[in-house]
Specification:
Number of strands: 10
Low-confidence stretches: none
Strand content: 15-25%
Number of helices: 9
Largest sheet: 6 strands, mixed
Distance between the termini: 32 Å
Order of helices and strands: EEEHEEEHHHHHEHEHEEH
Shape: globular
Strand order of the largest sheet: 6-7-8-3-9-10
Mean pLDDT: 89
Amino acid sequence: MGQLSAQNIGVSFDGRQIIKDVSLHLEEGEIVSLLGVSGGGKTTIFNCLAGLLVPDTGKVFLDDTDITGKPGKISYMMQKDLLLPHYTVLDNACLGLLIKGKSKKESRAAAQPLFAEFGLAGTQKKYPHQLSGGMRQRVALLRTYLASDGVALLDEPFSALDAITKTAVQTWYLDVMEKINLSTLFITHDIHEAVLLSDRIYILAGNPGLITDEIQICLPGSKKDRDPASPAFLQYKKELQQKTAVTAV
Protein backbone atom coordinates (compact mmCIF):
# COMPACT_ATOMS: atom_id res chain seq x y z
CA MET A 1 0.00 0.00 0.00
CA GLY A 2 1.27 3.52 -0.78
CA GLN A 3 1.85 6.31 1.66
CA LEU A 4 -1.54 7.68 0.62
CA SER A 5 -4.17 5.58 -1.10
CA ALA A 6 -7.82 5.61 -2.07
CA GLN A 7 -9.53 2.27 -2.48
CA ASN A 8 -12.69 1.99 -4.58
CA ILE A 9 -14.17 5.34 -3.55
CA GLY A 10 -17.49 6.48 -4.98
CA VAL A 11 -19.55 9.64 -4.43
CA SER A 12 -23.06 10.65 -5.47
CA PHE A 13 -24.88 13.97 -5.11
CA ASP A 14 -28.65 14.30 -5.48
CA GLY A 15 -28.93 10.86 -7.03
CA ARG A 16 -26.16 11.48 -9.60
CA GLN A 17 -22.94 9.53 -9.30
CA ILE A 18 -19.92 11.85 -9.57
CA ILE A 19 -17.06 9.34 -9.20
CA LYS A 20 -17.16 5.57 -9.19
CA ASP A 21 -14.74 2.90 -7.96
CA VAL A 22 -11.72 5.24 -7.89
CA SER A 23 -8.48 3.71 -6.63
CA LEU A 24 -5.11 5.45 -6.64
CA HIS A 25 -1.94 5.60 -4.58
CA LEU A 26 0.89 8.02 -3.82
CA GLU A 27 4.29 6.71 -2.74
CA GLU A 28 6.78 8.57 -0.58
CA GLY A 29 8.52 11.39 -2.47
CA GLU A 30 6.42 11.03 -5.63
CA ILE A 31 4.71 13.74 -7.65
CA VAL A 32 1.60 12.20 -9.20
CA SER A 33 -0.84 14.10 -11.42
CA LEU A 34 -4.57 13.57 -11.74
CA LEU A 35 -5.38 14.68 -15.29
CA GLY A 36 -8.85 15.22 -16.71
CA VAL A 37 -11.44 17.65 -18.03
CA SER A 38 -13.32 20.17 -15.89
CA GLY A 39 -16.27 18.72 -14.04
CA GLY A 40 -14.91 15.17 -14.15
CA GLY A 41 -14.72 14.71 -10.38
CA LYS A 42 -11.08 15.55 -9.61
CA THR A 43 -11.90 17.98 -6.82
CA THR A 44 -14.42 15.52 -5.39
CA ILE A 45 -11.62 12.95 -5.15
CA PHE A 46 -9.39 15.51 -3.41
CA ASN A 47 -12.15 16.38 -0.95
CA CYS A 48 -12.41 12.68 -0.07
CA LEU A 49 -8.63 12.31 0.31
CA ALA A 50 -8.52 15.41 2.54
CA GLY A 51 -11.33 14.11 4.74
CA LEU A 52 -13.64 16.99 3.82
CA LEU A 53 -16.12 14.60 2.20
CA VAL A 54 -17.05 11.08 3.28
CA PRO A 55 -17.37 8.85 0.20
CA ASP A 56 -20.47 6.70 -0.20
CA THR A 57 -18.22 3.72 -0.87
CA GLY A 58 -14.54 2.96 -0.38
CA LYS A 59 -11.80 4.04 2.04
CA VAL A 60 -8.82 6.41 2.23
CA PHE A 61 -5.60 5.32 3.95
CA LEU A 62 -2.48 7.17 5.09
CA ASP A 63 0.42 4.91 6.08
CA ASP A 64 -2.04 2.01 6.48
CA THR A 65 -4.29 4.03 8.81
CA ASP A 66 -7.90 4.60 7.78
CA ILE A 67 -8.38 8.39 7.52
CA THR A 68 -11.72 8.32 5.68
CA GLY A 69 -13.72 11.39 6.66
CA LYS A 70 -10.99 12.65 9.01
CA PRO A 71 -9.90 16.19 8.05
CA GLY A 72 -6.55 17.61 9.10
CA LYS A 73 -4.48 14.59 8.13
CA ILE A 74 -3.51 15.76 4.62
CA SER A 75 -2.50 19.30 3.59
CA TYR A 76 -4.59 20.72 0.76
CA MET A 77 -3.56 23.68 -1.40
CA MET A 78 -6.33 25.01 -3.63
CA GLN A 79 -6.15 26.99 -6.89
CA LYS A 80 -6.12 30.39 -5.21
CA ASP A 81 -3.39 31.16 -2.70
CA LEU A 82 -5.99 32.20 -0.06
CA LEU A 83 -3.44 34.28 1.84
CA LEU A 84 -4.95 36.44 4.59
CA PRO A 85 -4.45 40.08 3.59
CA HIS A 86 -4.09 41.40 7.16
CA TYR A 87 -1.41 38.80 8.08
CA THR A 88 2.26 39.25 7.27
CA VAL A 89 3.85 36.76 4.87
CA LEU A 90 5.51 35.04 7.84
CA ASP A 91 2.25 34.62 9.73
CA ASN A 92 0.47 33.43 6.57
CA ALA A 93 3.14 30.73 6.20
CA CYS A 94 2.62 29.74 9.84
CA LEU A 95 -1.17 29.50 9.65
CA GLY A 96 -1.42 25.72 9.32
CA LEU A 97 0.86 25.20 12.32
CA LEU A 98 -1.18 27.65 14.39
CA ILE A 99 -4.37 25.78 13.50
CA LYS A 100 -2.68 22.56 14.61
CA GLY A 101 -2.11 24.10 18.04
CA LYS A 102 1.48 25.31 17.80
CA SER A 103 2.29 28.60 19.51
CA LYS A 104 3.10 31.64 17.39
CA LYS A 105 6.70 31.50 18.63
CA GLU A 106 7.08 27.81 17.70
CA SER A 107 5.42 28.32 14.32
CA ARG A 108 7.59 31.26 13.38
CA ALA A 109 10.72 29.39 14.47
CA ALA A 110 9.76 26.47 12.20
CA ALA A 111 8.98 28.72 9.22
CA GLN A 112 11.87 31.19 9.33
CA PRO A 113 14.66 28.82 8.15
CA LEU A 114 12.62 27.78 5.11
CA PHE A 115 12.11 31.24 3.65
CA ALA A 116 15.44 31.18 1.84
CA GLU A 117 14.82 27.60 0.64
CA PHE A 118 11.51 28.70 -0.89
CA GLY A 119 13.00 31.81 -2.52
CA LEU A 120 11.21 34.11 -0.08
CA ALA A 121 14.10 35.59 1.89
CA GLY A 122 13.35 39.14 3.00
CA THR A 123 9.56 38.90 2.54
CA GLN A 124 8.66 37.84 6.10
CA LYS A 125 7.38 41.27 7.21
CA LYS A 126 5.62 42.10 3.95
CA TYR A 127 1.90 41.65 3.28
CA PRO A 128 0.38 39.57 0.46
CA HIS A 129 -0.56 42.61 -1.65
CA GLN A 130 3.13 43.50 -1.84
CA LEU A 131 4.04 40.22 -3.57
CA SER A 132 3.74 39.05 -7.18
CA GLY A 133 1.42 36.18 -8.07
CA GLY A 134 4.33 33.77 -8.31
CA MET A 135 5.67 34.80 -4.90
CA ARG A 136 2.22 34.43 -3.34
CA GLN A 137 2.07 30.86 -4.66
CA ARG A 138 5.45 30.17 -3.05
CA VAL A 139 4.09 31.39 0.28
CA ALA A 140 1.01 29.17 -0.14
CA LEU A 141 3.20 26.15 -0.90
CA LEU A 142 5.41 26.90 2.13
CA ARG A 143 2.27 27.07 4.30
CA THR A 144 1.12 23.75 2.84
CA TYR A 145 4.50 22.12 3.39
CA LEU A 146 4.79 23.28 7.02
CA ALA A 147 1.41 21.75 7.84
CA SER A 148 1.81 18.66 5.67
CA ASP A 149 3.54 15.87 7.61
CA GLY A 150 5.06 14.89 4.26
CA VAL A 151 1.92 14.52 2.07
CA ALA A 152 0.05 17.26 0.19
CA LEU A 153 -2.74 17.73 -2.34
CA LEU A 154 -2.30 20.57 -4.85
CA ASP A 155 -5.37 21.58 -6.88
CA GLU A 156 -4.11 23.41 -10.01
CA PRO A 157 -1.81 25.70 -7.98
CA PHE A 158 -0.28 27.37 -11.05
CA SER A 159 -3.38 27.75 -13.23
CA ALA A 160 -3.98 31.42 -12.35
CA LEU A 161 -0.46 32.50 -13.35
CA ASP A 162 0.46 33.98 -16.72
CA ALA A 163 2.50 31.73 -19.04
CA ILE A 164 5.91 33.27 -18.29
CA THR A 165 5.38 33.28 -14.52
CA LYS A 166 3.95 29.76 -14.64
CA THR A 167 7.06 28.40 -16.40
CA ALA A 168 9.33 30.10 -13.86
CA VAL A 169 7.32 28.81 -10.89
CA GLN A 170 7.24 25.26 -12.30
CA THR A 171 11.04 25.33 -12.60
CA TRP A 172 11.34 26.63 -9.05
CA TYR A 173 8.81 24.04 -7.83
CA LEU A 174 10.85 21.14 -9.20
CA ASP A 175 13.99 22.54 -7.61
CA VAL A 176 12.43 22.94 -4.17
CA MET A 177 10.66 19.55 -4.35
CA GLU A 178 14.04 17.83 -4.75
CA LYS A 179 15.06 19.37 -1.43
CA ILE A 180 11.90 18.92 0.68
CA ASN A 181 10.76 15.51 -0.64
CA LEU A 182 7.06 16.32 -0.28
CA SER A 183 4.81 13.51 -1.56
CA THR A 184 2.34 15.34 -3.80
CA LEU A 185 -0.86 14.53 -5.66
CA PHE A 186 -1.46 17.25 -8.22
CA ILE A 187 -4.65 18.15 -10.14
CA THR A 188 -4.12 19.61 -13.61
CA HIS A 189 -5.88 20.04 -16.96
CA ASP A 190 -2.54 20.78 -18.62
CA ILE A 191 -0.93 17.80 -20.38
CA HIS A 192 2.41 19.61 -20.78
CA GLU A 193 2.49 20.41 -17.05
CA ALA A 194 1.59 16.82 -16.14
CA VAL A 195 4.48 15.36 -18.19
CA LEU A 196 6.91 18.02 -16.94
CA LEU A 197 6.22 17.52 -13.23
CA SER A 198 5.05 13.96 -12.72
CA ASP A 199 6.43 10.56 -11.85
CA ARG A 200 3.05 9.06 -12.76
CA ILE A 201 -0.20 10.36 -14.25
CA TYR A 202 -3.72 9.12 -13.60
CA ILE A 203 -6.34 9.92 -16.24
CA LEU A 204 -9.84 10.60 -14.91
CA ALA A 205 -12.67 10.55 -17.45
CA GLY A 206 -16.24 9.52 -18.02
CA ASN A 207 -19.53 10.23 -16.30
CA PRO A 208 -19.33 9.19 -13.52
CA GLY A 209 -15.58 9.85 -13.27
CA LEU A 210 -13.37 6.78 -13.47
CA ILE A 211 -9.61 6.25 -13.50
CA THR A 212 -9.20 5.07 -17.09
CA ASP A 213 -5.41 4.88 -17.27
CA GLU A 214 -2.17 5.19 -15.30
CA ILE A 215 0.95 6.39 -17.15
CA GLN A 216 4.47 6.05 -15.75
CA ILE A 217 6.73 8.89 -16.95
CA CYS A 218 10.19 7.47 -17.67
CA LEU A 219 12.47 10.18 -19.00
CA PRO A 220 16.27 10.39 -18.56
CA GLY A 221 17.75 12.44 -15.71
CA SER A 222 15.85 14.31 -13.04
CA LYS A 223 12.56 16.12 -13.62
CA LYS A 224 14.53 19.39 -13.86
CA ASP A 225 16.38 17.91 -16.85
CA ARG A 226 13.24 17.16 -18.88
CA ASP A 227 13.35 18.77 -22.30
CA PRO A 228 9.85 19.65 -23.56
CA ALA A 229 11.19 19.62 -27.15
CA SER A 230 12.66 16.11 -26.93
CA PRO A 231 11.02 13.29 -28.95
CA ALA A 232 10.33 11.28 -25.78
CA PHE A 233 8.59 14.21 -24.05
CA LEU A 234 6.52 14.94 -27.15
CA GLN A 235 5.58 11.27 -27.44
CA TYR A 236 4.18 11.28 -23.90
CA LYS A 237 2.16 14.40 -24.73
CA LYS A 238 0.80 12.75 -27.88
CA GLU A 239 -0.12 9.58 -25.98
CA LEU A 240 -1.92 11.58 -23.28
CA GLN A 241 -3.75 13.72 -25.84
CA GLN A 242 -5.00 10.56 -27.54
CA LYS A 243 -6.05 8.93 -24.28
CA THR A 244 -7.82 12.00 -22.92
CA ALA A 245 -9.56 12.61 -26.27
CA VAL A 246 -10.82 9.01 -26.43
CA THR A 247 -11.92 8.82 -22.81
CA ALA A 248 -13.62 12.23 -22.88
CA VAL A 249 -16.10 11.11 -25.56
